[in-house]
Write a structure and sequence with these properties.
With about 425 residues, this protein is mainly α. The protein has 21 helices and no strands. The protein is globular.
């Protein structure tokens, strides 16, 4: 299939209606974001009600600035880190914390070189460009509208989070998997900064017999950890482990102000008032089911668009700690699975894409983490599609058969 014959989102959408809705949403989201940022400059760089400009981005920038200035020891000290952050924004704020391993300091150090607001702009625009470039590689036509109109993009920008960067990492790692397996593995190794979203990736590579990529992932991850230990010392890793245990109890297990934004089975069970042990057991069962369903197409097809979409959905559904801003990944899911979705699953795709916009308000209103349900319809549809193909293809499809065209055409070719 030539590039010109690749799946075209602009041909499959009802252009007059869907495009108008998408453009209107982009305009509304941009206005809301500008209003939000303006409100966050009322008292210093805060809204006057203890919320800083850039929200969670303050954590990334503060940690990067402390790391490059030689004060990394303050990052996992909740009190002193909080004092530093209040100095940055020039006003009292709620307690913000840094929950990432020291490897993240290596990757984000450059943002600490820029002034805070300029760094925030680089973080947002750079993350979107990295994500959008992956979208463009998958669907050369229709990528811009889809990548800008994702509700998760708006949620991610409001929260100052890393959803676009994580989506770009997974997107480019999978795009390059067949043609550049070593580079793909090295890119996917960057997920070591967010291990709760990374656990399923090596299992998929193993099931898909992508051994070179898996080796590159493991070696790169180990190298990043080793370098971070050499630069920052083992003590910083120990401090991270101690703080991580504390934050897991406060934020994940007991939901200090964040449960409404999470969409995991664990949080759903905790929202229902059941004990932590039951929640972990439920999450373990869900994660095993998700892993099994994801590995079926990887085993049968190897690297294919459907396998990629299933893996990304599995990353979201199988994680114990996953939030609405992580759903930027859904743009890649829709792009890779659109040949199936356009004929059988438009409402499922819409439900999934709208999850970041409605999951938190529904959780606040109902007291139930309804977002935990909203991705399952599209996941089960793609799983059912994969199961129908697996018996006839598993015995004859080699791992490399899914891609026999140039890289730009392989990724966009429909697999139905």
């Amino acid at each position: 299939m030539s590039r010109s014959a690749a799946p075209r989102l602009d041909q499959w959408f009802d252009i007059p209606r869907i495009r108008r809705i998408a453009v209107m949403w982009i305009a509304i989201a941009a206005i809301l974001l500008l209003m939000h940022l303006t409100m966050q400059r009322q008292v210093g760089l805060t809204d006057g009600n203890d919320r800083p400009f850039g929200e969670d981005f303050l954590n990334f920038w503060s940690a990067a600035r402390l790391a490059i200035s030689g004060d990394a020891r303050l990052i996992y000290d909740l009190v002193r880190f909080h004092e530093f952050q209040q100095g940055v924004v020039g006003a009292p704020i709620d307690l913000y914390h840094y929950s990432y391993p020291p490897v993240m300091l290596l990757l984000t150090a450059p943002i600490g070189l820029l002034p805070y607001e300029a760094s925030w702009l680089f973080w947002q625009v750079g993350g979107w460009l990295a994500f959008a470039s992956a979208m463009r590689r998958i669907v050369p036509s229709g990528w811009l509208l889809l990548s800008l109109s994702l509700p998760a993009l708006f949620i991610n920008a409001i929260g100052g989070q890393n959803g676009c960067w994580i989506a770009a990492t997974l997107g480019w790692g999978l795009i390059l998997l067949q043609r550049r397996p070593l580079i793909a593995g090295a890119i996917l190794a960057l997920l070591v900064v967010k291990p709760q979203l990374a656990w399923l990736v090596p299992l998929a590579l193993l099931a898909g017999r992508q051994y070179r990529a898996l080796a590159a992932l493991c070696l790169t991850a180990m190298a990043l950890i080793a370098v971070s230990m050499l630069i920052f010392g083992l003590d910083l890793w120990l401090s991270y482990a101690v703080q991580g245990t504390l934050l897991k109890q406060v934020i994940l297990e007991h939901g200090s102000g964040t449960w409404h934004r999470m969409i995991s089975a664990f949080v759903l069970v905790r929202h229902l008032g059941l004990p932590v042990s039951i929640a972990y057991a439920a999450q373990a069962v869900v994660s095993m089911i998700v892993a099994w369903l994801v590995l079926v197409p990887w085993r049968a097809e190897g690297a294919s668009p459907n396998s990629f979409a299933m893996l990304l959905l599995g990353v979201l559904l199988g994680s114990v700690y996953v939030s609405d801003y992580d759903c930027v990944l859904l743009g890649l899911v829709v792009a890779w699975s659109w040949p199936t979705l356009r004929t059988q699953g438009l409402w499922r795709a819409a439900l999934a894409v709208l999850t970041p916009l409605f999951a938190a308000p529904l959780a606040v209103a109902s007291g139930i983490a309804a977002g935990a349900f909203m991705l399952w319809p599209i996941f089960l549809l793609l799983s059912r599609k994969a199961a129908k193909r697996a018996p006839s293809q598993a015995s004859m499809l080699r791992p490399t058969d899914a891609f026999t065209s140039p890289p730009s055409t392989v990724i966009v070719s429909p697999t139905t």
